Amino acid sequence: RFEAITMAPPDPILGISEAFKADTDAKKLNLGVGAYRTEELQPYVLNVVKKAEKLMLDKGENKEYLPIEGLAAFNKVTADLLFGSENPLIKQQKIATVQGLSGTGSLRLAAALIERYFPGAKVLISSPSWGNHKNIFNDARVPWSEYRYYDPKTVGLDFEGMVADIKEAPEGSFVLLHGCAHNPTGIDPTPDQWEKIADVIQEKNHIPFFDVAYQGFASGSLDADAASVRLFAARGTELLVAQSYSKNLGLYAERIGAINVVCTSADAAARVKSQLKRIARPMHSNPPIHGARIVANIVGDPTLFNEWKVEMEMMAGRIKNVRQKLFDSLSAKDKSGKDWSFILKQIGMFSFTGLSRAQSDNMSNKWHVYMTKDGRISLAGLSLAKCEYLADAIMDSYHN
Ligand code: PMP
């Protein structure tokens, strides 16, 4: 009976927001959740999104159900954005694209596909990774293991370890890769390293599985941030790619994203798509329409599309400025000679500080700065004005 159910632990990321809300200190700072804030630390709705919504309202569109696979116009533009509209894979209809409930729901559809059609196959997840990856594969009953990724000595990529672990995994495993702006470390392979990773994956007959949650948001360029995925796609191998519009369009609560399965023939893509729909039907029946229309309208209209790119560059630029300021503040305050330049090398919304769990606790308990316990801070939740304060908090936590 329900009486026997025990209390679940708070979510390691979303639980931080709850702790932040409960803190009454005026200096408090929420660097836990990866959501963009303005310099005034307020949530931000993109102007281009407001415009697209107004156009939708003016048109008086209805709220009928979408097909199981989602809005056709969205599915088209989302694949175009990811692979490039001129990509031959698109013309050859080798990609099965199905709208999902943002990145998470799209990953979950892919996990169910793996569970159903690749029984026993393992998913390799980077160590560390976004915490929800493990939950998703656990709930889908897909076995997973980790590959080395982060090297605490250099606060950089353990490339040798990564390649060795991918090589060692059973043939035909799925290798989960972050398309850009690796969460939580902010450390991405170089183009050269991506080629070598692709070589090993092909050698071992593994299937690459990209999670693309930050396209355009990492560098400010949609194309640059899709380079890793396109490099794999150009090799003509099978590929899975989950997409999210939470960050790059600020559509967090609209739950808009997609799963793309690159196949080696149009025929296989049609069959895969039919099975993805079969998986989606009992999960959520059909996906929500509002965010899908926003994306389709923005990408499908050259003026709005350009406005989006400008706003995305502005958001990525603000994060880069904050990153620089934090580095400057830390370097100026730290008399120990510690090299903080790793902060500048990381990209995207997050910075992996190297703070331990105990030091992270000091950040929240003494300084009212909330962050994940793995030492990750979201720079998107930081303002230039708060960099000095944060640097003081980090200095105190690091050196005491
Ligand atoms: N993957 C990664 C790596 C993420 O960081 C996130 C968001 N934090 C997601 C997927 C999914 O987010 P959403 O479900 O909001 O698209």
From TrEMBL:
Catalytic activity: L-aspartate + 2-oxoglutarate = oxaloacetate + L-glutamate
Protein origin, superkingdom: Eukaryota
Enzyme class: transferase
EC number: 2.6.1.1
Cofactor: pyridoxal 5'-phosphate
Segments forming domain Aminotransferase class I/classII large: 27-394
BP terms from Gene Ontology: amino acid metabolic process
GO molecular function, a single term: pyridoxal phosphate binding
The entry's keywords: Aminotransferase, Pyridoxal phosphate, Transferase
Family named by the database record: Belongs to the class-I pyridoxal-phosphate-dependent aminotransferase family.
Note: In eukaryotes there are cytoplasmic, mitochondrial and chloroplastic isozymes.
Subunit text: Homodimer.
Function: Important for the metabolism of amino acids and Krebs-cycle related organic acids. In plants, it is involved in nitrogen metabolism and in aspects of carbon and energy metabolism.
The name this protein goes by in its record: Aspartate aminotransferase
Origin species: Erythroxylum novogranatense
Full-sequence range covered: 78 to 477 of 490
